[in-house]
Amino acid sequence: MYDFHQNTQWYFEMQALNAEKSVIPFIEEKLKLTEDMYVLEVGCAEGGVLRAFLKRGCKGVGVELDAPRLEKAKELNKDMVEAGNVQFIAKNIYDESFETEFTHKFDLIILKDVIEHIPNQEKIIAQFKKFLKTRGYIFFGFPPFNMPFGGHQQIALSKIFSKLPYTHVLPMSVYKMLLKLFGEGDVFVEIKETGISTARFEKIIQKEGYEFVNSKQFLINPIYEYKFGIKPIVQFSFISSLPHLRDFVTTCSYYLIRV
Predict the structure, then answer these.
(1) Is 113 helix (H, G, I), strand (E, B) or coil?
(2) Contact 198, 229 (CB under 8 A)
(3) Taking the CA of residue 140 as centre, how many other CA atoms within 13 Å lie in the half-sphere pointing to its CB?
(4) How far is 206 from 72, CA to CA, in rounded Å?
(5) Each residue of 137-187: pLDDT tens digit?
(6) What single string gives the DSSP state of each residue in 150-204?
(7) Quick check: 97 pLDDT over 90?
(8) Who contacts 180 (Cβ-Cβ below 8 Å, separation ≥6)?
(9) Crossing angle for the helix pair 67-76 and 8-18, to the nearest 10 degrees
(10) What order do you get walking across the sheet with 38-42 strand by strand?
């Protein structure tokens, strides 16, 4: 496992920096952030991404089901919590009480490196309409499943397995044998089952009646600048135009959609 996944303080700072430098500029190509906006982040972890929006004057809600990470988010954003600018809650957004807990709806929902972990993505993407204002927006940033490390090998305990690309695209039976060989757990099986391609993502968005507002594919994921010291590179346009090929050489996809 790479060290930055164990250092929560640095991981928080890295997420905040990436959001400031890459995520917010991408969103603001089409949607100008203003201080009266309400932002919901689903799967906020330690709250690094949301922090960047709070610093821009937005009000926020962070949802995280991992209790230790939620408590860390409250600690790292203590100033914003005490100022009443953000709430961090442990609640499944499918709970009926989630819909009635807030007196307002959201201008923007954020899912950064989250949608690829959620089963039944069709259901949750449809569910988001309940929480958005009229003409509200959703930002998605995720690694396409077929990219070199779309199986999240980087979080593996085995140093060898963590550096093996494309192992997750093997047939499930072979993949399970490989995981057993390296002593890795079922989390990688779950990621293989929930991983999402850009083509399937786009079909879901169209099926649920959302409008594509902006999209960008990256050959080099912007967050690699902080993880590995490698500058981001936008995917070549001719590769981006080939849905079934692009995922194998695209390390990150950004989308902004609207109801």
Answers:
(1) coil
(2) no
(3) 29
(4) 36
(5) 999 999 999 999 999 998 999 999 999 999 999 999 999 999 999 999 899
(6) TT-GGG-SSTTGGG-TTGGGS-HHHHHHHHHHTT--THHHHHHHH---HHHHHHH
(7) no
(8) none
(9) 70
(10) 86-89, 59-63, 38-42, 106-112, 132-142, 252-258, 211-220, 233-234
State the Cα–Cα distance between residues 175 and 170, nearest whole angstrom. 6
0.85 exceeded by pTM: yes
Choose among 125, 148, 129, 132: nearest CA to 255: 125
Burial-class residue 124 by CB neighbours within 10 Å (0-12, 13-18, 19+): middle
Q: Is 83 exposed, middle or buried (0-12, 13-18, 19+ CB in 10 A)?
A: exposed
């499944």: which residue's tokens? 92
- What is d(CA 259, CA 205) in angstroms, rounded to the nearest whole number? 10
Q: Distance (Å, rounded) from C-alpha 121 to C-alpha 169?
A: 20
Q: Among 82, 90, 86, 10, which Cα is nearest to 50's?
A: 86
Contact present, 131 and 106 (Cβ < 8 Å) = yes
pLDDT in tens, 180-234: 999 998 999 999 999 999 999 999 999 999 999 999 999 999 999 998 999 999 9
Q: Sign of the C-alpha dihedral, residues 192, 195, 200, 204?
A: positive
